[in-house]
Amino acid sequence: MSDPVLSLHEVRLSLAGRPVLHGVDLDVSSGEFVALLGANGSGKSTLVRAATGLRPVSSGTVELFGTPLPAFRDWSRVGFVPQRVGAASGVPASVREIVTSGRLGRRRLLRPLGASDRRAVADALDVVGLTDRATDSVATLSGGQQQRVLIARALAGEPDLFFLDEPTAGVDLAHQHALADCLGTLKERGATVVLVAHELGPMAPLVDRAVVMRHGEVAYDGPPLDEETLHAHHHPRLHRHDHTPHVGSPLDSLEERR
Ligand SMILES: Nc1ncnc2c1ncn2[C@@H]1O[C@H](COP(=O)(O)OP(=O)(O)OP(=O)(O)O)[C@@H](O)[C@H]1O
């Protein structure tokens, strides 16, 4: 196994005084495509925020590309699409400006945009289907379109490690397929992807590994679901209290077999 590009060890994290992550261990190797699954409030977004340094951990360690987070500087290698924020931000930035901001980490200081920057931005806009809205203010876009702008911004940076937190919420199926194609290309190029999702949809064939969170802990870490498991998941005897029925948790089929 290659060296992990992401490594969490015994990570604990509290929010507003309440423990949310209870000692999470997770190593993700270069080139892996990991689906991070689990019920509402199980800690998926918090885990991604801990991994990207957006939320300081209470204890434990996080390493990116073998470097402990406090010393990590190579942020151009990391892309992050946050969970959908919804309403327009009110910031009068154009779609192209926002997407171009994803190149900042790749550009040398104070250099104008080069041909490769412009190409990456154009490709990213094309993938999310917003080429014809490039000069529009993001404030005029719908919530789903704004989500696609955030995806394009992260894609434009051509990251080696890509975190996406529910990227397809509110995005129509055609653009989900376009995003899946794009992530497939990133994967072929050797990028590592950590995808938080309730529904994998067109992303399902890309997934190498499923990590299921439950109550702030990793409850399952293993191969993605096969068809049989998916069917078992829809078994009527199951009583679920969350909204993950489409993805399914491998734990459910394990529980079923008991
Ligand atoms: N800013 C915050 N302050 C206090 N508690 C929070 C905060 N953000 C999240 N939490 C709590 O932390 C827990 C984990 O939330 P998190 O968003 O990580 O879960 P999730 O698995 O990503 O869920 P979802 O699918 O709803 O996004 C939840 O109980 C949530 O209520």
Automatic annotation (TrEMBL):
Region (Disordered): 234-258
Keyword Transport: yes
Protein's UniProt keywords contain ATP-binding: yes
InterPro entries: AAA+_ATPase (IPR003593), ABC_transporter-like_ATP-bd (IPR003439), ABC_transporter-like_CS (IPR017871), Metal_Ion_Import_ABC (IPR050153), P-loop_NTPase (IPR027417)
Domain of life (superkingdom): Bacteria
Alphabetized GO MF terms: ATP binding
Comp. bias (Basic residues): 234-243
Keywords from the UniProt entry: ATP-binding, Nucleotide-binding, Transport
ABC transporter domain mapped to chain residues: 6-240
Family note: Belongs to the ABC transporter superfamily.
Protein name: Metal ABC transporter ATP-binding protein
Natural source organism: Nocardioides aestuarii
